[in-house]
């Protein structure tokens, strides 16, 4: 069983171009969302909410915004980086079966959130843990997930009617896929390479070996 967990962790990919568009069965979506909702959270605040987006009109509006932001980023790149970036697909908003927007509500569990008094971002980290649970559960169910980050929070908040004070943390494209790539897209397209684990591990203090 433990080997299955490690296999899912290493098989997980940020999916862009492999979505089939086939529907996600209701029971599968419920299991994935239940896994996300089971994530640990600071002070048991459970500061997340999940907005399930199926509307074609909403997805098209978001897709247009994402690609305007892509052009903004592309214009900031040097020539060689721009050429590499041009080969990279950044989203599967229209191709995926549905999208899930995960939010963070800093007021949830307040006014005194146990464990957050010294680290204000602990609540935001909790929403990220829910996202990771969702992603791993989806992978185990044979679904792909793609995190879209080319957007302005204000735009997405208005598009989905998210209340003031609630942050949209992630737009996740979700659905069945033809396959999961063995090598992540950014590595395959030469954008960046992974760091060896040894470079990320320090003993007792920074730089310790």
Automatic annotation (TrEMBL):
Q: What is this protein called?
A: 5,6-dimethylbenzimidazole synthase
Q: What Enzyme Commission number does this protein have?
A: 1.13.11.79
Query: PANTHER family, alphabetically?
Result: IODOTYROSINE DEIODINASE 1 (PTHR23026:SF90), NADPH NITROREDUCTASE (PTHR23026)
In Gene Ontology terms, what is one molecular function of this protein? Answer: 5,6-dimethylbenzimidazole synthase activity
Species this protein is from: Actinoplanes campanulatus
Give all residue intervals belonging to the Nitroreductase domain.
9-175
> Which keywords annotate this record?
Flavoprotein, FMN, Oxidoreductase
- A Pfam family in this protein? Nitroreductase
| Principal EC category | oxidoreductase
Extract the coiled-coil ranges from the record. Answer: none
* UniProt-listed InterPro entries: BluB, Nitroreductase, Nitroreductase-like, Nitroreductase/BluB
Identify the NCBIfam families for this entry: BluB (TIGR02476)
